[in-house]
Amino acid sequence: MYQPGRTVAWSAGLLVLLVAVVLVSAALGPVRIDPVTVAMAALNAVVVPTSVSVNTTSITVLGFAIPVLIPAFEYTAVFSFDVAGSHQLIVETIRMPRIALAATVGFSLAAAGTVMQGFFRNPLADPSIIGVSSGAAAGAVAAIAFPAIVPFGSIHLSAFVGALVTAFLVYAIATEGGRTPVATLLLAGVAIQAFLGALISYMLVHSGDDLRQAVVWMMGHLNNTTWSDVGFALPVALLGVGVLGAYVRELNVLLLGEEDAHHLGVDVERTKLLLLALASIVTAAGVAVAGVIGFVGLVVPHIMRLIVGPDHRILLPTSALAGASFLVVTDTIARTGPAEVPVGIVTAFVGVPFFLFLLVRREVHSL
């Protein structure tokens, strides 16, 4: 029987763990800073808006300049702890943006992976199963290699649009007569991924001096992160996962099969479309700012399912929080070693052995 208090307790515990992981991660680096100083520097960075003005700029889409109104806020600090200027600068402008983005992306990918595994009733499902990651990679590589012909001026925006276009293309291909069979959706995703893989390879061959940047992006990275990157991904992640949380009951019922779900009052096709769209949007936001980072959405839901059980009312929030901590830890390893490596490499090194361990122990089975 479901116990709401258990969800609250697990979520609170994982939130405390995330805060501890963030403080320890921000303390590590070429310049070591004790966690207490990190906490004070982080609190010094907390600001509230005190006034707002509106600036006018323009973006170019398909050769046309479109005016855009952008609000500009003035902020005032809430706290004022005595922290050395160099430490404040390191924590506020170098480490915390990267850690915040790692937590946001891990939160997004783990939540989307939980939904995809429940949606497909398949333990091998992850956020990239319908080609979202491949679509984002195609958009990003196109923006890097051919900036003059891409209608979006931002790599993030190009990747985000590429991911969403791919997801809805796969859905459109798989839908017939108002129904979207899960098996057809999966096969369409595999086919589109193969096509996009070939397209990406073609663009890489012709990317010239931009080849290294494109390859590093595809490996998954969090270096040179700014607060604007966090501002791009965080609102989408929080809103998307929050809305997904409203559909955990339907996701539980879908585990019984589509026919049984229909008899229990679930609008199966509408629910499938909503779950797929929301999971794709959440994944797209994460992949657009951090590149293709594998195994977070595959392994983390498995770990939490073994610990808290298959009920998505507790599995979704706990997986999302655990995913945030997982990616912060793996990115800390990636940036504090002898030489910095893309975080996607570290998640694969950690994720593959663990997943193989689960296979050997026969812990991976149909949902």
Describe this structure as you would to a colleague:
This protein is mainly α and 367 residues long. The two termini are 19 Å apart. α2 crosses α3 (85-120). It has one domain (93-360): ABC transporter involved in vitamin B12 uptake, BtuC (Orthogonal Bundle), CATH 1.10.3470.10. It contains 14 helices and 2 strands; from the N terminus they run ααββαααααααααααα. A two-stranded antiparallel ribbon has the order 1-2. The mean pLDDT is 87.
Q: How far apart, in Å, are the first and last alpha carbons? A: 19 Å
What name does CATH use for the topology? ABC transporter involved in vitamin B12 uptake, BtuC
Q: Structural class, please?
A: mainly alpha
From the alpha carbons, calculate the radius of gyration and give it in angstroms.
Answer: 21 Å
Number of domains: 1
CATH class call:
Mainly Alpha
Full CATH superfamily name = ABC transporter involved in vitamin B12 uptake, BtuC
Oligomer: single chain
Number of helical regions: 14
* Sheet with most strands: 2 strands, antiparallel
Helix content: 55-70%
Helix-strand string: HHEEHHHHHHHHHHHH
Q: What number is the mean pLDDT?
A: 87
Unreliable stretches covering 5 or more consecutive residues:
none
Give the second-level CATH assignment, the architecture: Orthogonal Bundle
Strand order of the largest sheet: 1-2
- Count the beta strands: 2
Protein name: ABC-type transport system permease protein (Probable substrate cobalamin)
Keywords: Cell membrane, Membrane, Transmembrane, Transmembrane helix, Transport
Pfam family, one: FecCD
InterPro entries: ABC_BtuC-like, ABC_transptr_permease_BtuC
